[in-house]
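Kindly inspect what follows.
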Amino acid sequence: MGIGKRTAALGLLASCLAVGATVTPADAVQKRPADEVVTAAAPTTSPAAAYRVYLPPGSGGGAGCDVGYACATVPYGKGYYWFKFYKYGTYTLHNWYGVGVTDNTQGFHAAMRILGANGREIGCEPPPVRDLYDWTPVYYIRLTAAPC
């Protein structure tokens, strides 16, 4: 920076300070009010599950896994999202974190396969199994006709 530019920058800084302006560094962390809630993105799948609904706290479970579906819950806020999968195929999971439930009610030994980031199977749920899963390391759910 040349002498002229430095002088101009110092002059601008001095004039701001003289009138009582606040100079905030570019890397300063701004605090949020204590009562402000920052919400993470809601969990979704691609392609979309056959059914997805948010169940608020106190809803008493409110969702069931109908026969023929593979279902999963994902905690969100103080409630959770309920997903029902029907078609065979691979579903990519977005924003699935925390411990939720799997419930496989598909027929004829059809499997609900739980896959990690590399596509490797880290779990397999045969029907009629209901289980807990930590979704944090899970990236995909694959429904197949082949048994576990």
